[in-house]
Amino acid sequence: MARIGLEIHVQLNTESKLFCGCRNESGGEPNTNVCPTCLGMPGSKPRINGKAIRMGYLVSMILNAEPETRMFFSRKSYFYPDMSKNFQITQYEIPLARNGYFEISGKKIRITRVHLEEDPARLVHVGGGITSADYVLADYNRSGVPLCEIVTEPDFKSADEVVGFMRKLLTYLQRIKVFDVKKCNWRADVNVSIPEGNRSEIKNVGSIKDIEKSIRFEIMRQEHLVKFGKEVKRETRAYDSETGKTRVTRTKEEEIDYGYVFEPDLTSFSTSREHLDELKESLPELPDEMFKRLKEEYGLNSEQASILVYSDPYLAFFFEECAKEYDDYEKLANWLVVETLGALSKIGKEFYEFDPSVKSFVQFLELMDEGRMTARLGQELVHDYVKTGEEPKKLLDEKGLGVIKDEAEIKKVVKDVLSENEKAVRDYEGGEEKAIHYLVGKVMEKTQAQVDPKTAKEKILELLG
Ligand code: ZN
Ligand code: MN
Description:
elongated, nine-stranded mixed sheet, binds zinc ion, alpha+beta, binds manganese (II) ion, 42% helix, 16 strands
């Protein structure tokens, strides 16, 4: 059984950077959103962004961690071009909070610590990867963006647990408004080991898809080594999403000496217990509470409610917005959870990236209710819908599809299908009930699902006598 631990860096959704007044926006023309402080110029001084501290405390609360009321920052020295001052301002000796846990499917994942630090510059490797690039460009727009680092104990046993944890964590962070999945990035360093070997650390994995694939690959790689009697070395690796593989970047076993020293340009900070209590009081309805409420208020089952609440930061809110306009909640939930998410996962897209309008989604359901689209056709059309985001009505018109209501037309199609599939007809007549599904499928195919399967079945039975 594998043991997996995470070090997650989440960009906080503040207005300005952690130690200067520059906007917290890492995109745009490179090196334009910068000042002497986030460029690390000699003589510049950091000033702490109080909102980032507040957000850090909120994060520690959803992680059930014990907050420190007094804390300070330290310099973590390393020589690398993503920090022009050659150190990162972070928290080391006393983190913002520690000893927490976060629950997924009834299992507690222990949280070692939560702390704040500045994001380094973004490095762009030109002409190759991290080890083979011709040269490297540095964009300091990202330098100084506030990060909240969350370190877990190695309590995960599988890629699935990690994925479930990350999805749930992101919905929590979004809910307490310290993070916006559309705007802020996150990335995780993933420690993976199996009982027979040393642990490897996969650096900077930045999406749910990659985290899942990199862990699966890494476990397979280590098991493979052990199987052939080879040693699993302690090393740092990188995940390449193009090849789906991890590869080694550093092998030396040394603990890098970061030479932590207190940051002398910042004073220590104190927060009162009262203030922390007030913050706790201000927390909104959290996903676990929402999960219960959705079940009660809309009569959803646990599976539906759980997927709505925990799989995507925007999904449950979207459900509730739609529910104001559309009152078959069961149907609404199913079309979101099963069909829409199914179609999205086929093209590797998250719900928040699709983010349809309430109007268009409700229209999609109403087309079926009004008899303008069969459910089967809806299951086809939803693929175009998630790809294009177009109005369903328009998609339907563009394709010239609808529901065939004309009896004679249906009869003709069914007749054709029966004569083209004599074997299935004989099978059915020979007592093989299942053959009917095959014939219904053929009618669907021929009509591009413009006939309701129930109607098709009735017609087939009628014609077969
Ligand atoms: Zn700045
Ligand atoms: Mn860090």
